[in-house]
Structure formats: structure tokens, C-alpha cells
Amino acid sequence: MLATGLAAVDATIVATVVPQIVGDLGGFSQFPWLFSIYLVAQAVLVPIYGRLSDVFGRKPLLLFGIGVFLVGSVLCGAAWSMVSLIVFRGVQGIGAGAILPLTNTIVGDLYPPAERGRIQGYVASVWGVTAVVGPALGGLFAQYWTWRGIFFINIPLGLGAVALLALYLHERVEERRHRIDLAGAAVLTAALSMLILGLLEGGVGWSWASAPSLGLFIGAVALLGLFVLVERRAAEPILPLWIFRRRILVTANVAGLAIGAILIGQSSYVPTYGQGVLGYGAVLAGFAMASMTIGWPLAATAAPKVYLRLDYRPTALLGGSFTIAGCLLLAVFVHEHSGLWRIAVSSFVLGIGMGFASVSTVVAVQSVVGWNRRGVVTGSNMFIRTLGSAVGIAVFGSIANTTLADRFRHPPAALAGKLPHAVDAASISFTKRHDTAAVVAYTRHALYDAVHFVFWALVAVAVLGLLAELFMPRRAEELRFDD
């Protein structure tokens, strides 16, 4: 639970202080990279950690991941520019790749299916605690001290997790020979980097139909095709292709893809909306975002009772329905002059859906294999979820940046020449610069349009997740396979 707290605090606190980071270091158009580079590093390493944990055990890999995460946290707190902060977030991501999948895998090792969901609910309750503590601390640091403090609070949490794991986690591991799929990891990293770079810079750094955009997207597709070939020949692939031949794994992973994208979209753009459009402080905007991570553990705690009575598929469908409802509320119920409570209600409903969907899909994939494959399937599910977040923040960032670029290129006649053409002009909404009221009002309206389009994109992703859950096997006895 302490190890999970590291990732949970990071998820709820960094997004809260993005406006202050942008105001201090600049680079509004670059802020999605704070999440993308973290998530790409995490996504690529999640299946590697999962594979290695099946070889060496969960404990040493988890301790290593926590250590790297803490080093990255210290470096982030000392960052001197947006570029350096982005690089150090990548270091954090290298450590984070071990934390969530291995904590979930350890729960799968220690408890049988009947108890696993209840314990997953306890672990998920960490998100509820950090939903209150994280935004509160982040907002206080941002408003009354410095955003850098949010990275240093990871130190006591991490050291506490290391001490307890070292003392009390005991496991017996059957040692065997292993081969690390470095080629697969390198090709996948390159493919994801090209895809995300194309999404974030397209329509902003260069036009969508330009040679750089086309080259990046074609290159990403070619490398993904090469990745499949590499994985077919790898002795121990980081992403075994057999997981794409099992219906339960495919549907659960597609649902995880949607969960990851929605999570990063909501947590990245709701604080931006609350502070940049509605004009609230960091603390209140953070609490509005965090209402999702209050609803999430409540639903996650109730999920085991539901799926033990109804089975995994109905529980996942219940979660998917709530998720769509929450995304629709953000897109329809929240407007340019609405109160912050509307965002909080919408996010809470969204969290209910995410709690039911995430627990039911993770426990389902863990229940269909034995110990020697549980790390792989759990790691693969977490990898797909993190991949959803990495690609999702790039897509949402592309939507927001393209919208803002269009609005700043074509301002009203009265503001012609008064607005910079760059997307970074959106930082006017967060900083205390003495711009004219008309410039600030127009900037906030442009930011509203950009984030509103992102909310509608969340609705589309939620529909994709529900469709995947519809195709899950109907009964638990249809899931098990050991070959």
C-alpha cells in the first residue's frame, strides 16, 4: 500500500501544479511531455519488470523500482527548465514501471481469487487517501511555497515502503535461465516515441500533412510491425504474442487501454480547466479532479462482492456504463461559467466506473493463469493501460494544442496583433501578467474550447472501453487456460 502510494500521489499531485510549473518554467505546449515521457518509460518497462519478476521474484524488482523512482523525484525537484524536468520525469517513469504491476502481482501471489478482490480494494483505498492528501499538498505548495516540494514528499513514502518490504515480504523463487528482450524494448520505445512526437507536434510545430508528420507516423507503424517480428523470435518476449490470442486477455487489455487514456485525460486537463478557465486556485481545482480518485476506491471495494455474485463481465459492464456517464457529464454538464462542483460530481461518477472496470478486468486476467504466468499477464495488462495513458495524453495534447493554435492564429479583429501566435500564450490564463482584460478573457475562452474538445474525446474512448467489455466471456469457467 505504501508503494502504491508513491504512484498514487504522483498521479494526483503533478497535474494539480501544471499551471504553476508552466508559469515558472514556461512551455504550455510542452507540458503533455511531462506525462508522455514518464508514461512511455513506464509502459515499455512494465512487461520487462513483469517478466523479470517471474524469474527473480517480485521483491528485488520492486525495491529497485522504488529506488529509481526516488532518485528521479529528487532530480525533478531540482529541475531548472521545462526540458530538464521532462528528462527527469523519464527517470521517474523508469522506476514507476515496477511499482503498480508488481504490487498487483504480489496481491495475486499472496491471496486466492475469493480474497484477491477484497485486498485489491484495500490497495485501491490508497488512491482515496491520496485523492485528499495529494491535491491538498500540491495546492498548498503551489500557492504558498513552490511546486518543487511535490517531488520531495515521495522520499518518506518510498523509504517506508522499502523498509517494510525488506522486513516482511518473503517469497520462494525457482531460479532458471533467462534472456532479456532488449531488442523488443528498443524497437517499442522508438515506435512509441515517434508516434507521440508526431501527435504532440502535428498541427503546432508543423502541419499535419507535412513531411515530418507523415515520416513520424509511417516510421511508427513500420517499427510496430518490426516489433511483432522481433517478439515472434524472442526467447522471452517482453510482450508475448499469445496474450493476443486469448479472448479474455484481449478484451481486458483493450478495456485497460481505455482506462489508462481516460485516467490521464481527466487528471491532466481538469485542473487546467479549473484554474485556467474558471479561475479557481490550485487547491480547489485539485480537489475537483481528485473526486474521481474518491469514487474509484469506493467502487473498487464494492467490486469483489459484485463479481462474486454476478461474475467478471457484468461487473466490467457496470463500470463501463458509469465511465461513459462520467465522461458525458464532463462534456455536457460542465461549461465555461459553471461552478467547480459540476466538475467534482462528473469526476466522482467517472471514478465509480473506473473502480468497477479496473478491478474486475485485472482480477479476471490473473485468475486464468498459474503463478509462472501471472506476472506476465498482470504486467501486460498494466503495460496496455500505461500505453493507453501515454498515447492518450499525446492525442489529447494534440487536440488541445491544435485548437489553441487555431484560436490564436485567428483572433477577433479587436485583438489582432495583441496575442502571440504560439500555443504557449495559453499561460496567460495562469500567470499574473498584466495583460488587458480582453486578452485574458479571449485566452480563457480559447482554453475552454480546447479542453471541451478533450472531454468529448474522453467520451469516445469510454465507448471503446464498453465495447471491449461487451466481448468478454460471459462466465468465469470459460476463462481458464493453462497451456
Brief descriptors of the model:
483 residues, mainly alpha, Growth Hormone, Chain: A, 17 helices
Kindly describe this structure.
The chain is mainly alpha-helical and about 475 residues long. About 75% of the residues lie in helices and about 0% in strands. The longest helix has about 40 residues.
Describe the global form.
globular
CATH homologous superfamily of the largest domain, by name?
MFS general substrate transporter like domains
Based on secondary structure, the structural category is mainly alpha
- The residue ranges in which pLDDT falls below 50 over 5 or more consecutive positions are none
How do the helices and strands line up, and which of them pair or pack?
Blueprint: H1 2-13, H2 18-25, H3 32-56, H4 58-77, H5 82-110, H6 113-144, H7 149-152, H8 154-168, H9 182-201, H10 211-233, H11 247-277, H12 282-290, H13 292-310, H14 312-333, H15 340-366, H16 371-409, H17 437-470
Compose a concise summary of this entry.
This protein is 76% helix and 0% strand. It is mostly helical.
